[in-house]
Specification:
heterodimer; A: mainly alpha; two-stranded antiparallel sheet; two-stranded antiparallel ribbon; 22 helices; B: mainly alpha; 2 domains; 0% strand; flat
């Protein structure tokens, strides 16, 4: 069947009443959690993953699609009204969006973000549907050595290429890789680094690590900080509707943002958020009102928001077709798939085609629901923004522990007569790790990606070496692998060149902090 | 790398040296644990020990890099920490962990909620504990009855049919 037929079948599945309900719950929960200050899409997805555990795989992934898109929309609302981006990808939105809100044009800023996200999501999801089968076809030619090279490329771009220090990025990655070794080795069944603790034999849960690093680490960092930033939530005054001029200035920016964002997200390398920076730069250059930039130019919201959504849909290309997560959010989604025993990759398209296509279709559905839901509900989201910090963080930790217990609530530990949950102990320990990482300027995403991608890359490496009977030259024997290594080397050397030339400030802004 | 990083103080950074030591210690633990594994000779070549050794080697290099970076004072400036809130939050997490196994989800989570609020300066506990309890109990009800999540039950949760 061709792409159209498969997508139509997926749409039919996604449009069943029950699945529509799941999508609706997903986008509502996703937006509500994503809009909370300090919670980016990665944490939104990690916190809400346990909600989907009891559903069947299709229903769960549909709800998941809603949570993913909803979380991103919520993040942009926060950055426009509060100027504290929950995710690095929203930094640019905050630049102009918050200025617009200060001038009393918060309504049109939210509207252009919402409609731009819709346009970008629509085009990018369709592009995903049409690009994915091609990538799958190409991926079927990949051998284990090529997969390993691909993962090395992802490791390099996620940890070393962006961010303000390659040393700290790589250190974060290696912490993640080290955590990934814990547990039973998949190929020989031997326990590694388990220290005789039965709970460690299954390895470290990606969601537990992500929730601990993002939620608990962040809570500790904010609570222990002496400087309490005064954050004011800007009221949405006047009409939320955009004027004719707003429309005229927005739509080319939406389209440009989409076509900048999607290819960058779809590349099997980290750094999807840089699309928003490129889009901002492009709008600034092309605008007929360059003097408005920095004062609240609507193109500066429309373009980057579209780019953000398009690259988020783009990251699903390597995730679904190659099983390669290139952002913390994608890493958690991969964990969600694994929960159901599904391993994304070319074989998923072959063996579970209806499931993949109903996921893609429900992204379209979720996208549409967000457009319909969000502008009318904007008052409610603004209320969520004004929750005082003590209640907000008490609530976040409540849900963080709830999710952890929901995933693994066994009271397997024992302290004298008192049973306790080992998973909560891990949560606490990694919470402190997250606090330390934040405090010393280490990025978080490479830890999460290292944990989930480490074991997968080891598997490919050993498979490649087993086929070659231990001859390491097999790793650089194929042209695909060589190309990937060259790209990886460039991804390190080009930013290094910029840093040496004193352009580090731009890269520092691109520090992939959350997403 | 840290070659051109601007920094406010160029003095050696003590805390960063601790990080370097911790990284080296983790590498040591990985090497020690991995060398204790008994690997059948047939898997010796590309067996389960290769990857841990590679990671340990990487961590040692990173530890050296971190030490150099600490010497140059290349870590970003940090503000002093307030320890009170950290103790409240960590205390809340520990209390919840030790309570939920026998007192149930609602009681344990109520303590967590109240302690975290206290860490952010909101009290008094006699007010926040009941608020936390009502919230935690409602969450327990929705998630364990509505979404079939298996959450720990205590005497109070067992009263609900």
């Amino acid at each position: 069947m061709d792409t159209f037929g498969l997508l139509a079948d997926g749409l039919l599945a996604a449009l069943q009443a029950q699945n529509l309900l799941y999508a609706l719950i997903g986008v509502t929960l996703g937006t509500a959690v994503g809009v909370l200050p300090g919670i980016g899409p990665a944490l939104t997805v990690a916190l809400l993953l346990p909600v989907t555990y009891r559903l069947d795989p299709t229903g769960s992934l549909i709800m998941f699609a809603g949570i993913y898109y909803g979380g991103m929309y919520g993040g942009s609302t926060t950055s426009i009204l509060l100027n504290t981006p929950g995710e690095s990808a929203s930094i640019v939105t905050a630049l102009e969006g918050n200025k617009m809100a200060r001038k009393g044009r918060g309504g049109p800023a939210l509207a252009t973000a919402a409609i731009g996200s819709f346009v970008a999501g629509l085009i990018a999801t369709l592009a995903l549907a049409f690009v994915a089968p091609w990538v799958v076809k190409a991926a079927l030619a990949f051998g284990p050595a090529d997969y390993f090279a691909l993962m090395v490329l992802a490791f390099v771009t996620v940890s070393a290429a962006f961010g303000d220090s390659a040393l700290r990025g790589v250190t974060a990655l290696f912490i993640g890789l080290g955590l990934g070794v814990i547990g039973i080795d998949l190929q020989t069944g031997q326990a590694r680094l388990a220290f005789g603790i039965p709970d460690l034999l299954d390895g470290i849960e990606v969601t537990t690590l992500a929730v601990a690093l993002f939620a608990i680490g962040e809570t500790l960092a904010i609570a222990s900080s002496r400087t309490h930033l005064k954050e004011e939530v800007l009221a949405v005054k006047g009409s939320v509707w955009m004027t004719l001029d707003d429309w005229k200035r927005s739509w080319p920016a939406w389209l440009r943002g989409t076509f900048i964002g999607f290819p960058i997200g779809a590349m099997p390398a980290g750094g999807a958020e840089i699309g928003t920076f490129f889009s901002y730069a492009a709008e600034r250059k092309l605008s007929r009102h360059p003097e408005e930039f920095g004062q609240g130019a609507i193109e500066g919201v429309a373009g980057p928001e579209a780019a953000n959504n398009a690259s988020a849909a783009g990251t699903l290309v390597p995730l679904l077709t190659l099983g390669l997560p290139t952002s913390a959010t994608a890493a958690i989604m991969l964990a969600g798939f694994q929960q159901f025993g599904l391993q994304p990759g070319p074989l998923l398209f072959a063996n579970n085609a209806p499931l993949v296509w109903s996921l893609v279709a429900s992204l379209l559905v979720a996208n549409f629901m967000l457009l319909v839901l969000n502008l009318p509900l904007i008052g409610l989201w603004v209320k969520l923004l004004t929750i005082p910090k003590p209640w907000l963080y008490a609530g976040i930790l409540t849900f963080a522990t709830l999710g952890t217990l929901g995933a693994n609530g066994a009271m397997s530990g024992r302290l004298g007569p008192i049973p306790f949950s080992f998973e909560l102990l891990i949560l606490l320990a990694f919470g402190f790790l997250g606090f330390g990482l934040r405090r010393f300027g280490y990025p978080i995403a490479p830890v999460v990606i290292g944990l989930i991608l480490g074991p997968l890359s080891e598997q490919q490496l050993r498979r490649a070496l087993a086929i070659s009977q231990g001859d390491p030259s097999v790793l650089i024997a194929s042209p695909i692998a060589i190309t990937l290594y060259v790209i990886a080397a460039m991804a390190v050397l080009i930013p290094l060149y910029f840093r040496l030339r004193g352009k580090g400030a731009v890269l520092q802004q691109m520090a992939s902090d959350e997403d | 790398m840290s070659l051109s990083e601007p920094s406010i103080s160029r003095r050696p950074d003590g805390a960063a040296f601790v990080i370097a030591l911790v990284l080296a210690a983790i590498a040591g633990v990985i090497i020690w644990q991995t060398s204790n594994m008994r690997v059948p000779p047939i898997q010796a070549r590309v067996g389960p020990t290769v990857f841990p050794y590679v990671i340990a080697a990487g961590l040692i290099l990173l530890s050296i890099g971190t030490a150099v970076s600490a010497l140059r004072g290349a870590f970003p400036a940090r503000e002093p920490v307030r320890y009170g809130p950290i103790l409240w939050i960590a205390g809340g997490l520990v209390a919840q962990m030790l309570l939920i196994g026998w007192a149930g989800f609602a009681v344990g989570t109520a303590v967590l909620f109240a302690f975290v609020a206290k860490g952010f300066g909101r009290g008094p506990l006699w007010m926040t504990l009941p608020i936390g309890f009502v919230l935690a109990f409602s969450i327990w009800f929705v998630f364990s009855r509505g979404l079939q999540l298996s959450l720990p039950m205590g005497p109070i949760e067992r009263l609900v049919p």
